[in-house]
Amino acid sequence: MSVGENIHPIFDRILQRSDKEALLKQRSKVIWMTGLSGSGKSTIAQGVEKLLHERGFLTKLLDGDNVRTGINKNLSFSEDDRLENIRRVAEVSKLFLEGGIITINSFVSPTYDLRDLARGIVGTEDFVEVYVKASYELCEQRDVKGLYAKVRAGQIANFTGKDAPFDEPINPEVVIDTANQTPEESVDYLVEKILPLIQYS
Questions:
Q1: Which of 109, 135, 186, 201 is an active site residue?
Q2: Handedness of CA 129, 37, 91, 192 (dihedral sign)
């Protein structure tokens, strides 16, 4: 007997997403922020979460470093494990989505394939891709985590944007250029874009 024969989903017998959204008076979406390390993703995600919370929305922020201390702590940064990292995050995001919760994700997710995987799991209609745009040079100047210094010292290999590719999003729903906006301006801009998608009517 295969494993599949022992699985009996009950999706049709549990409360639905619409029930949760009605209770919370909000529309759930998955806000997927992508960009180089140091581009400003985490800072903006934290600001957006706080502002939406103040406006009465229930949110969950999933950040790359946080996730790798818990559900994905067993994964490396190999190509296969990076894919599994994003797959798990997308599946978790889908669970929050079905629970009526607005999920804000902050992950480098550097390639088209990884982001397409996430979008496919979540569903195109609920996946809001946000490109947090900043050049490698600008991120290197910021170096908020000290990673770029380690790259220059040869302590980190296959670093995204240098030795490993970063595929610039082609048609993201939102683009935030952090070279020309303050963090506060970026937060306000993204919230303005999100609000029409999450307001309950």
A1: 109
A2: negative
- Which residues of the chain are under the pLDDT cut of 70? 1-4, 6-11
Answer yes or no: 28 catalytic: no
Q: How far apart are CA 62 and CA 45, in angstroms?
A: 9
Three-class DSSP category at 95? helix
Architecture of domain 3-198: 3-Layer(aba) Sandwich (3.40)
Nearest to 107 by CA among 124, 123, 119, 98: 119
CA dihedral 46, 47, 52, 56 (to 10 degrees): 80
What per-residue confidence (pLDDT) applies to 108?
Answer: 92
Ordered by start, the domain boundaries in the chain are 3-198
Residue 76 pLDDT? 82
Alpha-helical runs (H) found in 73-182? 79-98, 112-122, 136-142, 147-152
Q: How far is CA 36 from each of CA 76, 131, 181, rounded to the nearest angstrom?
A: 18, 10, 16
